[in-house]
């Protein structure tokens, strides 16, 4: 495990400098004598402080527990719409319902949704038919559950579609994570992240759906290496090619569904199982970035090739923007300005990490200027207007004037 | 190597001054023995051997203003109580345990003062990067900071010790005064929670 974080440890300041070591040793020597006396005096003060602290903590915890027990029930922004248990929504046309916690429901025509529980910390609905798009505000105070009769969709966060059709249930995740539970779900529970989808047949069959072609969802949902109980450092290296979640839509029996949901072969059969998919996590991308870092010093071209070929596998990872930024910097150094501008554009559109976005904007303009790419001047103007005090502004203007090398 | 040095020193005490110049130096057990016998040099040797580790632990856990206090108190307590150390070879883990108890003490104090200052006293990893760290690493550390802030201390600390300080599992177990199995579970819990939170796009 530790190896995956080696590059972070290497980037952190060491514990002490030599001067600090000397100074602290001097203070330790000074303190060694009178420390017991001072401690006795301090213990009295500490006793008083503890009494105050206990009182404060008691009142604090009382306050917080009373807050927790008083989470308001979810309501619709439009006061005429009731969200209480028993409410039913059956729309003839597309309907949007904005909710009090910032979440929203979008019912497709003919969808029918019942509210069966609205108890402050829990919001339970039953989707009888049709398609509903759920946009659940992340880290809200309540859990969301959508019962469909075929499976239960449990929200970890944050945006997804549930479609109850005649043949079964289709769950498609746009953003965040959802859990799909049910007897007919492989392994009884599947965790889906952005870009992944699952189709659960009504009649005891599971069809693992192809990754959505909806550009909003991304063209491929990917399966990172299986890590399980192993530490990242001990985990297998990432596969070299992007692996779509499922490319086959052939129905398979529930007995083999658990091992075939992540099957990647078009001609896959139950006899050709692979491990169930695991959601992308930081440490899997960390493994890749560590490999890229190791290659970068000796063979930058290979590092670029490795990162370029793998980066899309992690498009739902929290560090996707970081990886794209790294790719942008490396390709900029390698004078591949088109690739660099494209990589920085990913960081900008991704919006994360926030601390890199401005820098990515500046570097994208730099790549465009250096590569004489179309729109470079306009991009510079926009950047200057938006970030007049950015430290890279002067450098970019020199580049635009053609004075820089 | 340490065993060999120890045998050499037992057999020929006159070699001690030469052997002490060796990179490994005297063993922890020997240092403890010498400190118990009132050897000031051994105190400083122990301090110099472990001060970077203890400072690193304090830095990854606490704000910079609290680091010196933790380091100094750790060694002062260690020098006072070193005679109680049952297994002198376990000195490193014992020092880590003292350091963590000092860290907890700081957190307890901060828990009270945060009512007035709003500051929980936790370290910010992104502010501890050395000169020349890449912007990506800084950004990722900032991400870790946000996620770690949401973890309970019982799992956050072992994770930090393991991954940001670089302690072995045995050392983390000693520092947290837990069994190895418990520490493995806590680190795994922390990792799971971190992965989940990062997966949610925190």
What does this molecule look like?
Helices cover 38% and strands 19% of the residues of chain A. Chain A is extended, with a radius of gyration of 27 Å. By secondary structure, chain A is an alpha+beta fold. In chain A, strand 6 and strand 7 form a beta hairpin. In chain A, strands 1, 2, 3, 4, 5, 6, 7, 8, 9, 10 and 11 form an eleven-stranded mixed sheet that branches. Chain B contains ten helices and no strands. The N and C termini of chain B lie far apart (48 Å). Residues 1-23 of chain B have low confidence and may be disordered. Chains A and B meet through helix 1, helix 2, helix 3, strand 7 and strand 8 of A and helix 4, helix 5, helix 6, helix 7 and helix 8 of B.
In short:
Chain A is α+β, with helices and mostly antiparallel strands and 405 residues long. Chain A has helices at residues 6-11, 18-32, 35-68, 254-260, 282-296, 300-310, 320-333, 337-350, 354-370, 376-386, 393-400, and strands at residues 88-90, 95-98, 104-107, 112-118, 122-135, 143-147, 152-164, 168-181, 189-193, 197-201, 206-207.
Name the overall outline of chain B. Answer: globular
Mean pLDDT of chain A: 70
Structural class of chain A: alpha+beta
Largest sheet of chain B: none
Per DSSP E runs of 2 or more residues, the count of β-strands of chain B stands at 0
Main sheet specs of chain A? 11 strands, mixed
Order of helices and strands of chain B: HHHHHHHHHH
Distance between the termini of chain A: 44 Å
Percent in strands of chain B? under 5%
User: How many distinct helices of chain B?
Assistant: 10
Stretches of chain A where pLDDT is under 50 for at least 5 consecutive residues are 60-69, 204-283
**Taking Cα atoms only, what radius of gyration of chain A do you get, to the nearest Å?**
27 Å
Q: Low-confidence parts of chain B, pLDDT < 50 over ≥5 residues?
A: 1-23
**Total number of beta strands of chain A:** 11
Strand content of chain A: 15-25%
SSE pattern of chain A: HHHEEEEEEEEEEEHHHHHHHH
Tell me the radius of gyration of chain B: 19 Å
